[in-house]
Amino acid sequence: MAKKDFETQRRRSSLESIFVRLPDNGIACQRTRLLTAMYELGSVTTFEAMRYLDVFDPRPRIHELRADGHQIVTASRLQQTESGAYHHVGEYLICSGTDQFAPALDASNMTVRKWIQMQFEELA
Hints:
- The chain is of the alpha+beta class.
- Helices cover 53% and strands 16% of the residues.
- A hairpin with a 5-residue loop joins β2 (72-80) and β3 (86-94).
- The relative contact order is 0.16.
């Protein structure tokens, strides 16, 4: 149980760090936060997007990212909320060119790295 709590806290801390790095609330920044979370953490849930990335409804942002050419898969999973209740939520995972899930941003995906960098530059 302690390992699960540690992983949950680590993940939450990572999501909060993404929000601190990208605090603007415009839709371009919301998309960048979602994409960054998917690359840095491997996935992001609708619950996490709302609670920690301040993306109130991530579905339109995911739709826009897909329209921009990002291959994003939606899965369903159970996630516990602060009240202790479990809910079915969407989990978004980004795919690499080989249809493998990309758990981290690496040198083989320079297109996405450049896209994220351009988003940072637009916000500056």
